[in-house]
Records
---
Amino acid sequence: MKKMLLLSITMILSVSLFGCNSNGVDSKMIIPNQLVLTQGDSISVNGESSRYSLHSLDFIDKNLGWVVRSDDNSNEHCSQILKTEDGGVSWKTLKLNNSNIQRLMFVNKTTGWAVGQADSKNTINEESSLIKILHTQDGGQEWDVQWEGKVNLSSGYHLWFQDTMNGYALISGTLLSTRDGGKQWSQVICGIKDFTPQHMSFVNVDTGWVVGKINWKDPSKSPDQNPKNKLVVLHTIDGGKHWRQQFAKDYAAGTVGSVDIDFVNATTGWFLTSDLGTWNDELYYTANAGKDWQKISQIRSARPSPTEVKFITPQVGWIPLDVGAGPISGGLMLTKDGGKDFTIVGNEDEMSSNREVDFISEQQGWVVATAPSQGDYLMHTGDGGQTWTQVYPKVRPTKDISFVDNQHGFGLGQLSDSGVLLYTADGGDTWKDIYNFSEKFRPRKLSFVNRNMGWVLGTSLNSEKTVILKTTDAGSSWTPLDVDITQQSPYFTSCFRFFDPNNGIIVADHFNVFRTQDGGRSWQVSTQELSIASFISLRQGWEILSSGSKPNTVGLSQMKDGATWQALGQISSNAWPIGIDFISSDKGFILLEEPAFQLDSRVKLLVTTNGGRTWSSHQFPQGLIIETLESAIPIQFTDDQHGWILSTQGLLRTRDGGKTWTWD
């Protein structure tokens, strides 16, 4: 996995490849105004990237739903509420100023509640935080504060409402209730010393359960020895005035916890333990309102980890599995026998990591899934989990791009399936899935020379060998080429490009260069130590050179004869190369991070109109973040005006030569 790049932008002066540093501007080096960008111009970025987290999913019917979005890269840590009225086809953003929402719930199309931190500060390292309960009566447009208080950050946030008047809020171990729609909230006392409720489930305002833990120590031991915890389930039938213990089990200290508790009616329910000591969670079941609990399943809890328990009927239930940092596979667990047996639904890509589910029936449901290092996305099923469709954000490429003109292009991968081929006819505004390689092939790179002819480089799932596929019908069908390029690994490919129906090149990071002159049927290999490079033919190309030391010197070399590289000079004395693209022998673009490997690293776009002899440089807005998992950021221009940058945050597009970029 390549170095993840944290990028924001500052003012950067003109850079010469013949030794001039960035502290001064030589008027002789300024490039004539042939592109839209001219020396000194800054760059603007519109829209929002797709690096964010989604949580607190809540649908009240098949069309109307809400989900909380928190931008991971935002310095303000404010939440947004996304609302859909068409089942997820389109979404409206409802921004909450100075609020970091952790949970929301609606009882109808207008009335809902939200709970979360009262300010936008990052309180990860704080022991307590000011929490607010918010209320809306217009579907989420406006919110009023109903309650606020300082609570210890010991566990999560949960809401449950029976109607517009009666409900409960469990806020980091503090249980609150209301009987007047939230105008007044009162704390519910469970009556057991040192008990901390972690999860709750109510079937009506009077009848409910909480699961939590009791911290205690064996009195026969010294205070610093043999600490223990007890997991407890409590039950109330009078709205929390009185509680009865139904289940208790001792655990070693620090290991006990609960994942969730869920009742589908007044008698049938489940709770899932969390035992970090053994990494095995236990699913317990009751059919008599908790008078008797029996263990019916055991689920391993160490990456992937179960996140919640959601049953739709006494037989049908779901448990999402979160992989965390990856790269292991998680899934979405489904039971149809009340929790005795589970199966994993969805393919490995689209259901690899999941945190939340929300089903309004056995057939209609949504799930919050995660693409490692690329953010969260929302999937919908209308057939009980047999098939899934990505409904947020809109589909866009995640692995590679290849545009054949300003409007028409192809992309590899999407958040919900890394093996799909995408196509756009509007410059990247919208993309549609036209082919899926996932069953037999793991695609990595692609190159199209026109709307019909293209190639994809990747790995066979059966043999793990490098494979090249070719299409002549715009991606509708693909033919494997009978080639032997065993020296090349598609996981380390910095350049894969065809220039016309016959001529193409592969640069394997870092030592082998493959060339073909017969459309990919045969390849000639040469040993050249190349890293980030751009070619406009088999004979002519440019390479960014990096010293890899501190400070990290970056230079540029050019090849004109297919064999010999000539140094053009130094670009920066302390930077990290990100991407490069030349569209002709004169015009090219480079992305750099500067200074290299620093928390305050800045990125700049360099532009040349004389083959790389001189460059103008331009700043992006401060706070812009661009990251990649590959050897280089895919950057492509089709002419002076139209270009794209693909990163793990999304797809950036420009229509004015790089002066203005938009997140697609």
---
Amino acid sequence: MTRFFTILLLLLAAFQTKAANLVIEVRDSQTKENLPSAKISYEYGTTIKHATTNAYGKVELKEIGYPLTISCSYVGFENFTQTITEKEAGQKAEKKGHFTVFLKTKYTSINDIVITGQSAPVLATQSIYKVNTISATQIGQRGAANLNEVLNYETNNFVSNDNILGSSVNMGGVGGQNVKILINGIPLTGRENGNIDLGQINLPNIKKVEMIQGPMSVMYGSNALGGVINLITATTQKPYTISVKSYLESIGRYNLCGNFSLNKNKHSLQLSFARNFFQGWTPKDSIDRYQLWKPKTQYLSDLQYTYDFKKVKLTYFSSLLNEKITNKGTPIVNPYEGYAFDEYYRTHRFINSLGANIKLSVKENLSFANSFTNYKRTKNRFKKDLVSLDQYETKNVGDQDTSIFNNWNLRGTFTSTRFKNIDFLGGYEYSFEKANSFKLADQTQQIGEIGLFASFLFKYKIINFQPSVRYTYNSKFAKAISPAIHSKIEISKNTQLRASFARGFRAPTLKEMYLQFVDQNHTIIGNADLKPEIGDHLEVGITHTRKLNKLTAQYGLTGYYNAIQNLITLAVYNGQGVLRVYDNLDHYRNFIAIGQAKLDFKKMSVQQSLGFTHVLASVVVPKHTIYEVSTTISYKNDYLKTTFNFNYKFNSKQPVLTIDDKYLFTSPIHIGNFSMQRSFFKNYLQAQFGIKNLFNIQNARLNGATDVQGSAHTSSTGMQLFPARSLFFNFIYSL
């Protein structure tokens, strides 16, 4: 009898709590995109457990029993709770042992998911770094045709334009040569004058921009001393999507882009093609061939293929750029002939990357990102006969040149959360660059760098503390150690305090060491004896988020201190402005304070930022202070079914280093735009109309500056900022 009751009890227990495994997948009910870091609570019998979804929005619940109660929460979405039986799980699951939870949007979330510098995707509020994000929606609201128009409205960023070298960004008072730009974590190569041209990126394919200010040398090595800008390309979980985007602007800009994606079983494919054309613009009404803003034609394409099977995810990414800039000279006419000197600049960049993400276990992950980039820049100068239209190559030094840079970048990381309250991230990165150009000493030069890095994130109640270090060996400059300490305190559920110290390292580039550039107006010589730049960065910031009914508000105040030793810059040689040599001149130090506020209503979103930068005096830099104000407003009118957008930014002044080693300052700069957006035909067609350069600011006068010796210096010249005020139209048709 005892044996009978024992068997009966075991059968009843097995019937009630039959052990099984179940994979829970959490998705956005609207976009169908997976939601990483979603909180899962599940209960069966008397057992209550908790889990968090991984980078793909999935988590496996092991040895569970039925009936099972699942609760899921995610910032910005309504909570989900459901009790299911084993039979219901089999009926509602997409496949056996797989159950999908669809969460509905609760309100507009200002807590973005970030991946830059992280061991796994996390909410921006959970990141130990201060990460600033710009979503695809914000990019569209700014009517941006290129990346420089996106960054123009970011506080503590100043974008400058050169008609030949392109657009560059200054972040936190640190030049573009110290800002590393990534696409899906892959470093972009092809710097001209030390800067990546922001206008050479396929913007319609970008889903989000993530920015971290301050040295990120531990995670990303050289060229990340000033910060990192990571561009995340668009992906989708839908079976297929097709979209065509056209952009028209009254100053002569005509862009056309097409995007296609396909998802089937374990395969995912995204394609993007774009043609950007700018006919050039000059401020005067003239028949002259010369144009102040040069004509430019670009062809861009991106391809991304992903194969996801079991615990391995393979990704191939490719990006291609072909660009042509035309610089037609002013006609020269005399009694015997009419001619002009024309220049053509052609740029070719081809990126190939193969990545792998391997799930070793629920708590351990291994990832690889290997890329090869070919960059080619060609300059050709011709003397053109304006009567016969024949043209001939000129023979002066520097008139004909081709520069080729090949870059290999191999990166691997291992992450583990096996130990309680400790997250570990370790990895390696190898970079090798080989250059071939007549502008380089000995024509061919190469440089290699390998880095080993590790970080430990300690979590104790409300405190997160992350020490990290990177060991770098450079083939030209031996070894360097870059330490960093980041911390975050959860003062409350809605308030975070961050403090960090980081040391950055930047090795001189091949051009800075070996350049021998000579033309009619310049002689620029590299310096093989340059020392690496070393930068120290201190940061303290606090953010607070509050939700009141339909209003979500976020406030933040951040302070920075930057100090760079062995600053590399072009120095005038023996007082001769034409001859310049790269040299380590002096320290550069600044203090920065930024206050930010974001308000999200049901129909309105407002962002307001105030910036203050104080630069200390040094041998090459006079003491000066810069103020910034940035405002972004978006309002949706339900009656008109139209969204109205307004963007504005004010800069009190910006420093400019002239060819004769003088520091000038621009006059105050106001930039702004306004646009209206509306959807038609059940959201298949989206249309936007707007005005750019509302205040018609075309250049900034340079004046009132003092050189470092204290003598007065003024100039009537100016710096080009934008073409004239213009109208633009943007149309997107999607399936």
---
Amino acid sequence: MRHVLNTTVALGALILSPHVSTAQDARQDTIIVTAPGPERSADELIGNATGLDRDDILEVLAGSLGDTLADQPGTSTSFFGQGASRPVLRGLGAERVQVLTNGLGVIDASAASPDHQVAADGIDAEKIEILRGPAALAYGGQAIGGVVNVIDGLIVEAKPTETTSADLFVASNSVNEGTELAAKGQVSSGPFVLTLSGSRRDFGNFEIPGFVESAPLRALEEAEEEDHENNELEGEEHHEEEARGEAENSFLDTQTLSAGLSWIGEDAYWGIAIRQQTAEYGLPGHSEHEHEHEEEGEAEEDGEENPFIDLEQTRIDLRAGLSIDHGPLTKVSGALSIVDYDHTEFEAPGEAGTVYGADGIEGRLELDHAIGGFAGAVGLQYLDKDLTASGEEAFITPTDTQSLGLFLYEARDWESGLGIEGGLRFEAVELTNSEAGSTDFNLFSGSLGLHRHTAVGLFIGGQLSLAERAPNESELFAFGEHLATSQFEIGDPGLSKERGLNLEGTARWRGERGGLGINLFMSDFQNFIFLTPANSPPDGVDADLPVFLFTQEDARFIGGEAYADYLVTDGPLGADWMLEASLDVVDAELDDGDSVPFLPPMTLKGSATADWGPLDITVALIHAAAQNDPGAGQLETDGYTAIDLKAGLDLAEMGLAPAGTEAFLEVRNATDEDIRYATSVLKDVLPAPGRNLRLGLRLAF
């Protein structure tokens, strides 16, 4: 843990700064519906929680969910071009971060491979909530690292204040010559509410500021070339690897169509919604990996292959709730999702390769209650998911996953400001593979926390939790070439369940002009599952790609997030100024002393917004340190400093357009930095987009 001391000093410096106070000024008013039990704001949770409303989402919107959330405190992305990414929370991602839609799992193939798009998107979302730490445990072992809940608003639980409403958003991007479009309309009549929405993204290949390959990778290749005589063919291959200026085959074309019908009574509601998402996106870097390992004499001509994914998911949601005014039971709610998902990986147009399917059903029943001063919830959750893969590049055999979970959560607050909260969850999981047979796990999770509010605006709390996670399909049953990561992956059906003991503490203060906050955590994992290079190929394995094995070892994660904001009224240039800053860091080591791979580096974020009423201008800065402890088999990742600029204009306030009309102009990555995410498997062969001029308009009425 060589960076822990430096990290602690940096966190302390941010918190003690006299010019800033807590991040997210609206945090104290943001209700986090994803948290179990009674409704609470983000400032009332011990764990770090973030809620982004529609305005926040549109400000940070990117091509996929992980990239949209990448700049939130304690959050990074598994960036795989514009088409695929998942959120990484506190250094944990994929199989340890549960992505939900309206409180139930997305049921897709995104956790099986980083090039698979997550079937939840922010472009048509009403709200996105992020839970880090113990509060996420009510959603099962797969949420051991946290929960991201995308709330689409198709099923409403309360009667809208307006009979009709609409929201239209459109934007254009220079970096990929791309367009974004989203529209939503709502009509109510009597107790019924109809909601319709649609969205579309059309992005071309994106521009990059320099070389496709990273400086460490190019230096390694140059060193290897010095050990070999260069012939003409090798020179040509190297010239191709020195490509720059554009990320080839990085296009994205995706659309969604959704409808929801709700009935709202005095004490009850029910609703049904259907959402269809389709996407077609390129796999940058994928074809290069393939060419490197084709059999001699079988390689195809350069440029002939442009692999891409064609995806479709249809999701049906049913949800209902009943409020009860007497007795210990206060509310009964239930939700059910039925999902049909498939995607085809094409090696070139018309040449279908691997086909993935994920069909499933998930349901959740929750009973809210108030007993003896305690308020809480008891619930039941069930999942049945079939994951299939067929084709030459299928490295996972068909697997059915069934789980049944029972959870209990209780909380109580006293007039003195003291509060207590805790929860238990038991889950039985069975995975049945078509070749390896069945394996089952009994999982237990529990948490206990104490907090205290003070009259001077201070909130302090601490929480201890234990969580267990079952290995997923890839970790248990993978066997074959995984070209998205350029690895031959081998799972282990004998893997044990993963267990994490987590300790988290928080302190927050808010005054009239701002506040400050800090969350610190330490997680000890037993049987932590990770992918590591094999010293030599196992018997019977003849692979052209490097062989990687899923294995287990104890690990420890330590880190935290600090966040602050400060409001200056009637400040310089006659504007009201909002100053914001955050710092997040995580360090993790395996029991043998090696670093856990694909960890985000220490990252500092700050912004200053000047508000003149109808006009506001923001300057934001992100500094990511170099990742010099990349883990076995990985190269170091250079740090970067990126600057974003944005100007927003309220056309309605200026009398130029109807109420709710806003225009914006922003420059993302204004200095055209070479940005590479240490959390991405493509970090050495694919940088993030370069300078992007983004112009947009939103109309809401």
---
Amino acid sequence: MPVGLRVRLGCATPDEFAEKFAVNLARGGFFVRTHELQPVGTCVHFELLLSGGERIVAGKAVVAWNRAAQPDRQIASGMGLRFTELDAPSRALVERLTALKERRGLAPGLLEAAPSAERTGGKAGAPAPPRLARSEIPPNEEPLPAAEKAPPAPAQADLSLPHSVQKLSSGPLALDLGLVREPLTGSRPSRAIIGIDLGTTNSCAAVVKDGKPYVIPSREGHNTVPSIVALNAARRRLVVGHLARAQLLSNPKDTVYGAKRLLGRPFASKQVQQIRAAFAYEVVEGEDGLAAVELGEQRLTLEEVSALILKEVKEVAQNHLGEEVNRAVITVPAYYNERQREAVRRAGALAGLTVERIVNEPTAAALAYAYGRRLRQRILVYDLGGGTFDASILELEDNVYEVVSTGGDTFLGGVDFDNRIVARLLELYERQVGQPFDGDRVALSRLVDAAERTKCALSERQEFRIQLPFLAMKDGKPLTLDATLTRQEVVRLVKPLVDRTIEVCREVLAAKGLDPSALDEVILVGGQSRMPLVHEQVRAFFGKSPSRAVHPDEAVALGAALLAHSLGSAEGLVLIDVLPIAIGVALPDGRVRPVFEKNTPLPSRKQYTLATTQDGQTEFELAVVQGESAMAADCEYLGTVRLDGLPSGPRGMVRIAVGFDLGPECLLTVTAREMRTHRVVSASFAPRPRPAHAIREGARPEGSALVTTIRPLPAAARQKRPASRPSGMLGFFRQFFGRDEVR
């Protein structure tokens, strides 16, 4: 049964209420001091009354946090509630007060209601208790934590600055994202260059000051910003970061998290189809064939979602530094493919950032570990984050950081650990109530939240009790999950995932003929690497305890900041990275012929000389793919390079030099030069498929007949292509890979 709650405030008039609580009310919830704590997720019907008994705000809320969930916090016993539904007068009042305060430039806070709140024992509108004390609590005393396990907030952030909140129009929800749709032109590059760790669970920004890097605190004072974007439909607002995380339990359908896993991936891909059911929000196909999400009635690309997170991080940095910031170094998983890296760069541009460099997360962590120490070591960075895993071997030589081998899994991280625990909780639920789980999205979101809390708690204790009331209904009665999990039980559940990370490490070592004893240090980064089981398995495999020299959550951002700082100085920092995933050309029989092997040092270039194989041949095309499989169907399709309009002539008379250039960020450029006229055209691969027209057509001097076009087509479209090739195509492929490479 929902809990009824009625609170009488120490305000006699609406004006007095507005004066005391308008700033706090904008957060969409309130804190109640009470010893009668309700479990997280409990539905509450509430009324806030003036001192004379007049109702001022009423509606429904959910318990998002309580004192029992964070016993280490030095605050009074109580619980925090988040609005899920307001009646029309209350909603109008909240909107009016919020708009008033935003015009004055004040920060939205959180209403702390009263110690006088008492249960009414049932439905909204139940009779008030006979004695109802007046509130004596200062209205701005204690803000509600953004999440149940939020760390204590060091008072570093300037909370007087407004949060990243976009106002929505009336009528059907149409989001004004506030993103930059055109390339930045005419703007002056900012003095500061920040480093950004765009994470699956949390994002982090850092900057270098007086030669030392440090993490920029969020608006709430935390060192990270949740990588979450949410639509607060009741108040018609789009929120990012901590405000978005606060509604994860109460409104999971309109709360996008874990978007990094889907970024730059085709909707029809096997990976997206396997994981889309794990999200409470809708994963749909975008107009370009890539995965997208729905918020309210609008479809957002994953680039736009990532851009909103980057925009929030950028604004946090600007507020902290007191100056404009439009330049950044952004990190990505080492095992990201070409399409995903370009998607991150595009997201940065949408957020109003010039992305000076894309750098791999393990490489950035190595920078944070070794910068300024003049080390000569061979290290392995074990990066187990919220959604991805990477392992990279680096050789450090003073200020030279050379990656020699890398590997990873972009679908292996803390989310997968949580899912294993959720599966166990569902088994226990079915055993207790005698029927399979049939709860709604909110109930499932509460299970996921409980799984994460259980995982974190069991890193410090041997057992943890989970109590989740009102998960579903049976015969008109609420169903509750009450279970206790032990550390050993969770270890059995997630050990196969840790074993997968060790197998990746073994492959990375084997790629260079190394064994674990050849390493000087093993560096653990990423939030999931804190798990005791991870430490035990790493110690057992490598024969040494992992280093604790870097902060697992902050090392990547700090390394990115150090690299950003070096771009504007003469420090001579040298990064030598490698290609994480092989790139090749699809052959007519469906096989792949590699052009660049995995672990090829960057930058790199290969060039081939081609000649026509048929009289009058005027075109040819190359389908470029990325992956480790020998079959093109199992690889990531990057695009098709098409050359047409070649000069007509006898077989072998028209010769073309085709160059494949890999930059330091693993971004591929293809250049074609017709050798008789020496005219050159080039094209870089776009991050996503485009409409039928060419993505980019190279500049062609007057009179030139050579055109290079890249046409990335969706997988479905490629499957519909006729099996036949242009005249002479098979002979072209034989020629392409039969000739010696021109260097």
